[in-house]
Write a structure and sequence with these properties.
Length: about 150
């Protein structure tokens, strides 16, 4: 019999993203998610920024890619960020519209037909698919109708 060496408690740490334009991506994540630059730097032609909130690292951005995020290849499907309320999701949506960001479905959508949880799906400037959602508050609203399969966008 093999003894497990798996950790007893695992949670997601920070998320590292390759970007094409560090200044543009930094501004996007600051504006949309309210993150702050915790640290940034440059080493020759290599640039990076660490973003977070209240001193906690959430996203690292690395300028080391070209083109757009390839959704048809194996790898990341989307990143999801939880907020406390449906009003916060709607505020993110309004901020995205003001930025001219690409929204999937156009509005707040439930995670499943009739679900109480739901959010807004969008892409960052490099085409990385993102979601901001609230775990409750959608039931009984106009947005709680038919849901797209958030796994297929």
């Amino acid at each position: 019999m093999t003894t497990s060496v798996a950790p007893t408690a695992v949670k997601t740490g920070h998320i590292g993203l390759n970007v094409t334009d560090l200044a543009r991506s930094t501004a996007f994540y600051e504006r949309v998610l309210g993150l702050q630059v915790l640290q940034d730097g440059r080493d020759g032609d290599r640039e990076w920024a660490f973003l977070g909130r209240d001193g906690q690292l959430m996203i690292t951005l690395w300028r080391q890619s070209e083109g757009r995020f390839a959704t048809a290849l194996p790898g990341l499907h989307h990143l999801s960020f939880q907020v406390g309320s449906l009003d916060e999701v709607r505020a993110v949506r309004e901020g995205l519209l003001a930025l001219g960001a690409e929204l999937h479905y156009g509005d707040v959508v439930p995670h499943a037909e009739g679900a109480d949880s739901g959010g807004v799906f969008f892409t960052d400037p490099d085409g990385i698919r993102l979601e901001v959602y609230a775990p409750s508050g959608l039931a009984g609203t106009a947005a709680a109708g038919e849901a797209p399969a958030c796994g297929f966008f």
